[in-house]
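Here is one chain, start to finish.
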Amino acid sequence: MMKIFVLLPRIPYPLEKGDKLRAYNQIRQLAKNNNIVLCALNDDNKIDKQKAFSSLQPYCSSINFIDLPKTRILFGMKCAFFKGLPIQCGYFYNRAAAKRVDSLIRKHKPDLLFGQLIRVAEYLRHYNIPKAIDYQDILSMGLKRRADIASCFSRPIYNMEYLRLKRYEAEVFEDFDVKTIISEPDRKLIDHPKRDEILIIPNGVDHDYFKPQQREKKYDLVFTGNMGYAPNVNAAEYLAAEIMPRVWQQRPDTKLYIAGASPDPKVKKTACDKIIVSGWLDDIRDAYTESRVFIAPMRIGTGLQNKLLEAMSMGLPCITSPLANAALGAQNGKEILIGDNAEELAHHILTLLDENETSANIAQAGFDFSNRVYDWQKATAIMENAMIEAVRQKSNK
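Its structure:
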């Protein structure tokens, strides 16, 4: 049994964001054989800490939340700018928090340090203790894709952060004994000659929770996710402005459901009699069970789309873009339908809505695929074995 000190950039509850979902489930799996000391940074003063604590308590021997006041966030970003570090690393790093992290590490004397995302690397990289970092996905490429569609005013800022992140992703590689990432396409984007050493640890799905349910269908099409997240905002606008008008030409009554927390004003503006924007749902499964087809027309962002895994696990036929499927790895035309542009995506929507047999076949194959390939226990076990080996090697030196 190892004592693992886990440092996260956010409190992993509620599970409305991909990084929270990944952290929560990895902690849940690692806790089966190990002692977990959790330390989570927090920049959200609206979060229910007591509820989060109660949800995490079954898996952690110690739970510690470190608040990041706005003044320290701004100061940290300023320091990062002048030091040439990524601004988002500065967002999450400050000296007061670093002293607290150090105090916890000294108190608990862990066998291994585990950080999620390079946003927390500055807190851990210099300790002479076995260390693991979960890149999760490539933050630099996410910024580059946002820069490509940004305004002339904001594009230089995105490009600056892209270059800083790209350099930093390679720089911290040598500081950690175990490196993990969510997919092969993301690993290929790490600018380091030994990037093949990074372990691919995909996400999983709680198949007992996300399972098919029979319910009356209120919506033809559904898109879910954190609707304050830029790639989801972009996808929602794309759906409303370019894809759905093509669908409505042939099926005027087709209804789209955009479901998820914190909808951006741009997402709210898409709402009309044929596009319903829900905001926060207590149970996101309702959005899946009340809809006939799932779509994730992602054009920017990186990593694996949990929304696709959940929809497949609940038995919905799914449509997505080449960008999103690169990480997912589903078979086009059998387990999923992939559209490269608005016209192709609209065609796939119409196909699944009009052809019941095709829709059922795609849904069943997608369900089988998600259950066969994506499993939290199997994925986390690979990472855990690498952690055990890192601790063993360090102790033998």
